[in-house]
Every structure is written in structure tokens, then in C-alpha cells.
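PT: before anyone asks, these are the final sequences, not the draft ones from last week. 895 residues across everything. Please model them as a single complex and drop the result in this thread when it's through.
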Amino acid sequence: MSSASQEYQPYLQPGGFKNWFFSVDHKRIGLMYLYSILIFFLIAGLCAMAVRAELLFPNANHQIFDHHGYNIMFTLHGAIMVFLFIVPGIPATLGNFLLPIMIGAKDVAFPRLNILSYWIYVVGAIAVVWSLIGPLPSIENGLIKFPANWLDTGWTFYTPYSIQSSAGVIPVTLGAFILGFASILTGLNFVVTIHKFRAPGMTWHRLPLFVWALYSASLIQILATPIIGITLALLIMERVLEIGFFSAALGGDPILFENFFWFYSHPVVYIMILPAMGVVAEILPVFAKKPIFGYRAIAYSSLAIALVSFFVWGHHLFVSGMSYWSRWIFSLLTFAVAIPTAIKVFNWISTLYKGSIRMDTPMLYACGFIFLFTIAGLTGLPLATLSTDVFLHDTYFVVAHFHYTMQGGTVVALVGGLYFWWPKIYGRMYNETVGKIGFWMLFLGFNAAFMPQFILGYMGMPRRYADYLGEFAELHFASSLGAFINGLAYVVIFGNLLWAAKRGKVASKNPFNSLSLEWTVPSPPPLTNFDEVPTVTTWTYGYGEEQNA
Amino acid sequence: MGHDRKMGHVQSPKVYLGVLLGLFVLTVATVAVSYLDLGVLNDVVAIAVASCKATLVILFFMHGRFEDRITWAFIWYPLVLVGLLLGGVFLDYANRVTSMQDVMTPISAVETAGEAGDHKEEKADDGEEQKDESQDESNY
Amino acid sequence: MSANPNWEPGTFFHLHEEDPVEEYENFKLGMWIFLATEVLLFGGIFAGLFIFKYNWPEVFRLGSQALDWKLGSVNTVILLCSSYTMAMAVDGAQRGKNKQLKLNLLLTLLFAFGFLVVKYFEWSSKFSYGYFPGSDLFFSVYFMSTGLHLLHVLIGMSFIGLVYFRARQERYHEENFGGVEVCGLYWHLVDLIWIFLFPLLYLLRH
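LR: through. Structure below.
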């Protein structure tokens, strides 16, 4: 055994389906998760392109599919993006790959549970795709007509429509229920790993901030997901047995569904954004050559966000007939989220101050994240304010706000993280120029797509409408063009990464001169990560301090 | 390193038996209380007794008393969250305007002033018994 | 688990070895965290129960009267006894008394089976009187909560069966009883849920 471990063999070998699909290695599971979620990112992205194509011009002179088809498209876009792409987005991919290496462990606490989580993800994905099986879309009168069994409830499955709709609500909700298990198991694994598997000397206050962020997100994954589980299970029962929980006709309450749904689904947006914040906190100090500013403030604000996230779900129900006092209190509590979030942003910016900044591709993404996420956060405030939310609720303002968080925040950070750690994952460098082109296409396309939507929303354009008035035409047209550039950017971005994985220049062990533990192991890392358990003596962010020594 | 750490804790079997008897006694108590009509207190007592039983099970049967702070955090946190969910939802339900009549009274008062007045009196007279039915209507 | 030479290292059937004490502690913490998710899963139904009871006090009063509190009490006693035997099974494993372990696991399974039998009679009598999920909100809550609980009883029984199977192979002893203890934790949770379901469904008759 000892002679075998001396010999360096990257984790990518040996290949073969059996060795990958049954692998318990966290790095392989992370990669399998990555490619799985990217497939669904592509599908959901194409749905978004279809939605924007439909909205290029007012329907009077342009239509691709009928209005029911439009409902199906934005539903599939939302449901697939949320449940199959962005919730596992960073934790299950970069998190799985990096967490054990960052804390100096061989693997996660429960390697078998980890692969089980991936298998469950696959089963859940099959359940969601199953809802689409049946008759194929057809063309009638020059319009694409989608089959009636495709989901059209919106990703939120709001009752009573989700009970009445003839679409395949059950397979999708069942899929989301199953995917919840995958999410819980990943979170559980991470929490136990972070508690028990830290290398000697890796104290809580030496942990990389990405680990802190994953820990906070995992807590939410564990504690919020069961609520959506029971809610969706009850929704399925509602459709099968008519139990009446969410049906006003039987004495139940559709608003109860919204309460339960958002009790999970608001915390879940922090599952999406917290790891993204962690990625940014890792990238910034490396490229600014400065210790991270306010380490403890950033670390504890992650926990604070995880805590506060459970207190604010009511702000999604402001116009649902919720009681006056509830609205008042939830509005107040929602503002509390702004505090830890702002703490993070200020600390990131302070980290950049007087740093010797190198604008490589990952750093571009990190800075892009700060810019876009700040807009996302600030536009959240008018939505938290009761009086303005009543006006802005269910308009494009909301759509733009959460796309700035989800895409401008999470996806930008995911891509930045992939560029940053790609040399570690595959041991090969991406093309810097193409990487920068990809970033600028994404940045400009994204802003062109969603900045007009803020204005549209403010002018009163409601979301989820297949048609609009002529006065919105220019802004919708601009938004669609931006969206297409945005979509094209991903072709460049992932094309560059995939090319790098095969053909890129061989990367050194630590191409960015980072100090954290994952850069001390060879690229790509061997199966057990470390030959011997590392002992940690300093924190991760001693940039600049090393030059004095 | 691992050798000085013990694996788990052993309790005397008498403890388990005592806990079981305690659980029986509490079960009898909660059934006995259910024969008294205490109003809302019935719910409170039922939950309080159940909580005592749960505490016994967690502390002794599940060896909770030997567990560390992290484990206890994961015992308490879900309970707090269930409380939060209940609290948040109840905050909504207890104050919700269940009947659109309440909101629209001014308009109907303008249109049919006399009828609206009668309607209000009716409501007041019938008192509690009518309450369920009026909720009934409004929820439909 | 011993390594299977047919599989590459780092695959499902060929794991790295871990320190047994560490493994035991991780396993237990993992189960406690999983139980936290279970509490929240049932928390949704409990929240529904309280809200509907608040909205429809009369429906819940009549529904509660329609249930047979004697059968509910019998099931409560049965589950409490099964919890006791499960605790004694863990005690047996901790002390390396394999006989005590196996006997108590069997008793636990027996009690669990008794619970199922009582439940069967209870449900079938409800069906024969025309009470179904959806009959009214009380019976929706009743069937959803006890149904979900029943599912957990079945999962717990399979878990206990697996542990019994392994106990017969003499896998458990003073240095290795994590499996039994974790199984016990799960079974006690099944009991805990029932401890709350019983009074809330059967006993609030006024």
C-alpha cells in the first residue's frame, strides 16, 4: 500500500464508466455533478432564449409559440434552472471538489453518502425529464405547439393552479422532492466534514472563507429542504387524493402553500448565493496580493445570513392577502439581510484597496460579481419596502432583481471559480484572451438583457406575460438582444474551459500563487489528496506577509 | 490519539426501565387530562406532557445527555424553526382579514345603509356560535 | 467494510479505512443531523394541524371524538415499549452481550409489528365508517400524519432488520456498535413523532 501511495496518480485515472459512476472520490463526484448541472444549464438556457425570442417584438407582428407555450417555456426555464442547476450549482461541484482539500482531509465524512447524493440527483433529474415524455411539440398555423403534459405552473407550483392544471405536475414535484434529498445529503456531509475532518491546526478561524460559506449554505440545505419536501409531498397528495390542505374549496388555504413554499424557497436563494460569495472571497486576495480584509466579519456574516434567511419568507406574500402585521414585520426583518450582505461587500472592496491587482480572468469575474451583486442587493431594498413592493410586485423589476442575484451573482461566481480552479481540476490552463472575451460578452450581454428590465418593471410591465404594449417595445427588444449575447457568451466561456481540459497548456502546481491548501497538492490532485496529513500553522490569507519573511 | 477517547457511554439498565415507567405514567396522565374540559389549556397540557416525554426519550434512550454541543445545536435548531414557521404563519392567520365584507363595508354602507346596519347587529347577536359559520363562508 | 479487490480504490465497494472511534462519532452526528431534517419534515404537517385546528375548531373536535383513543393509547404503549427494547439492544451491543442485542432487536421488531396490526384495524375501521383522506381537514391531517409516520415505522423496521441480520453475524461488540446506536436513534425518532401525534390527534376532544 505504501509504495502505491508514493507513486503519483491523478484522480482522473483510471477512466471507465464503472470507476466513475461508482466512485466515492469527492473530486470525481464534483466533476460528475458539474457536467450534469451544465447539461441542465444548457436546456434551461435554451428555454430562456426561446422566451426572449418570443418577446423580441410585440405579438402583433411576431410570434413563435402560442401563449400556453410561453407559459411552458418560462416554467421549464425556472424549474430546471432552480432545482437542477443552481441549487446544486456551487456546493455540489466546486464545493465537493475543494472542501476536503481545503481543510486538509482525504475525503468528505461519508464518501458513500456523497455518491448516493449524486445518484439521487440523477433519479430526480430523470423524474423531471419524465414529465416531458409523451407527444412531441408540433407546428400548427406557423406556431410551435407544446404538448399539454409539459409543466406550465411556473417554477413555484402555486396552488390552486398547480392542483387544477392538466400538466405533469406530479413528476416534476416528485423530482424536486427527490432532488431535495440529494441536497440534504450533500449539506449533511459537508457539515460533519467541516466539524470533524479539519487537519491538525486548521482551526475555525483559519478556515478558508469558501469553507465558511459552504458551512452556512449547508445548514440551510439541511434545515430548509425538509419543508419543501413535505410541501411538495402534500401537493402530490392534493392532486392524487384531494386532501384539501391547499384547496380553499375543501377548507384548506392556497396561501398556506405559499407560506410553506417560501419558508424553503427564500432560504434557498442563500444556498445559491453564499457559496458564490465564498468563491469571490477566495479569488480576491489572490489577485490583489493582499490578506482578505475583515476575515471574521466575512465569516460570521455568512452564518448571520444563514440565520436571518429563515425569518424573511413573508416578503414574497406581500400582495397575497397576508395580514397587515405580518407584512409590516416581514418587511422590517427583510432589511436585516442587507446588513451582513453589505458587510461582505465592504470587506471585499477594502481587500482590493491598495492591493497590487492583477486582472486575470478569475479576477474579472470576481469584480464583475461585486458590481452585479451590489446592483442586485440594492434593488432588493425597494422590494423589501412594503409600499414600493406593492407597486413593483410581479413586474419585470423583480425578474431583473433576481436575475442579477442568480446569474450576475451565482453563475458569474461559478464561472469565475471554474476558471480559477480549472488548472487544479484538470492540471491545464485555459486561454487567457478567450477567457477575457467570454467575460466581457457575459458582462455586457447580461447588463443589456436585464438593465432594461428594471425600467420595464418600473414602467409597469408585469412578469410572465407573453405579450406587451407597444410602449415597451424598444426596451424588450434591447433586453432580448442582450440575452442572446449573454447566451452566446456561455458558448465562448465553456468552450474555452472544455478546450483547456483536453488541450490547454499544462499548468503548474500553483499558477496563481495562492496560499490555500488545495494549491499545495499536485494538479490534478491524487486520489487521497495528501500523501500525509498536513499540519496548518497560519491562516490562509497571509498574502504580502510571505514576502517579508 | 484515538485510544484515549471512549466510544459512547454505558448506562445502568435500571435507568432505561425507570424511564419507561416514567413514560407510562405520563401517558396515563395525558389521557386522564383529556377527560377534563380545560379549553385552550387542554392543548397546552397535551403539548407540555408530550414535551416531557420527548425530553426523557432524548436524554436517556437516545443518550442525549452524553452528547456534545454540536449535537444539541441540531436538536434545538429544527425545533426553533418549526416554532418560527408556526409563529410566522399564525401571525398571518390571526390578523388576516378573512372576510372581504370587512374591507368593503364602507362601499356597501353607502349603497344600502340600512341593510348593512342590520347585518352588523346580526353578527353581534349570534356571537360565538355563528363565528365558525361566518369563517366558513368567507373561506369559500 | 473490507476492500473488494474487484474494484478500484476509491469506489463504492473499496473505501479507505477510518479510525473506528472517529467513524463512530461521525456516523452518530450524521444521524442526529438527519433526524433534524425529519423533525422539520413532520414540522410542516404539525404546522398544518395547528392552523387548520385554529380555523376549524369544530371539525377537529368532532374528528378527534371519532378516533378511538384506546387504540391510540395501546399503540403509544407499544411504541414506548419498543423504544425501551431498542435502548436495551444498544445497551447489549455496548456491553458486548450479543444475546441481549439479538433478543431486544427481535422484541423491537415484534412491537413494531404489533403497532402495524393495531394501525391496520384502526385504519380499516375508519375506512368502513367512510372516513378517508379528504373527508374533511381533520381526517386529511390524520391520514397524512399517521401515514407519513407509518412510512417511517416501515423504514425503521427495515433498518432494525438489517441490524439484526448483522448482529447474527456477530458483527457488533464493545468496539463496534455504531450501527446499532444509529439505528436506535432513528427508531427513537419514530417514537418521538408518535409521542406528539397521539395527544394532538386523539386527545383534544373538547
